[in-house]
Design goal:
Elements: E1 28-34, H1 40-52, E2 58-64, H2 72-80, H3 95-100, E3 103-106, H4 109-114, E4 123-126, H5 139-176
Parallel strand pairs: 1-2, 1-3, 3-4
Length: about 180
């Protein structure tokens, strides 16, 4: 996975909405964009917010190009791993949500192709993830596909958070010079 986000001039040390104290580091806002916001993008949002809690400077949301609703198998797979996404509703992409994001991560080919033009300064990354909702076979085989997708997404999100952390540290170091 190659990250293409570049720290902005207004990054670390600025005050942003939601910050409690002036001068606190800016949260990096990541939007995971899928076709239906029923599985992969919601799992990515769940992992990013779950794993990003400890770092405190990552905030994630997810949205869709089309409305597909919730996928109970995705929610069950995440619940098995200790992350509850069952209460989240499927969210359709809006210009405001797109403007909120610093980084848009498309999680499927269709979302990548359908992603509208990004606002200036918003970066994009693409993860070509297989759709577990298209898995066929027995119920156990389909459940295994959702678990495999969940684990792949966790790996991708973990890598993303580490890359964002490295970028943040480099930005801080450059600011000290």
């Amino acid at each position: 996975m190659q990250l293409h986000i570049v720290p902005s001039e207004s990054g670390v040390g600025s005050t942003f909405p939601g910050d409690e104290k002036p001068g606190t580091p800016r949260k990096i806002r990541v939007l995971f964009l899928g076709t239906g916001n029923a599985g992969r993008s919601r799992m990515a949002e769940g992992w990013a917010n779950h794993l990003g809690v400890g770092v405190g400077w990552v905030e994630a949301r997810s949205a869709n190009i089309e409305a597909h609703g919730k996928n109970s198998r995705a929610a069950a797979a995440m619940r098995e791993a200790g992350v509850d996404i069952s209460h989240w509703e499927s969210v359709r992409l809006t210009p405001e949500l797109l403007g909120w994001a610093d980084l848009v991560v498309t999680v499927c080919k269709q979302a990548d192709k359908s992603c509208p033009a990004l606002p200036p300064g918003t970066q994009q990354n693409h993860w070509p993830l297989n759709d577990p909702a298209k898995a066929t076979g027995t119920e156990e085989e389909i459940v295994r596909a959702f678990r495999a997708s969940r684990d792949t997404i966790r790996t991708c999100v973990t890598s993303l958070i580490m890359e964002l952390r490295i970028m943040e540290l480099r930005t801080r170091e450059a600011g000290r010079r």
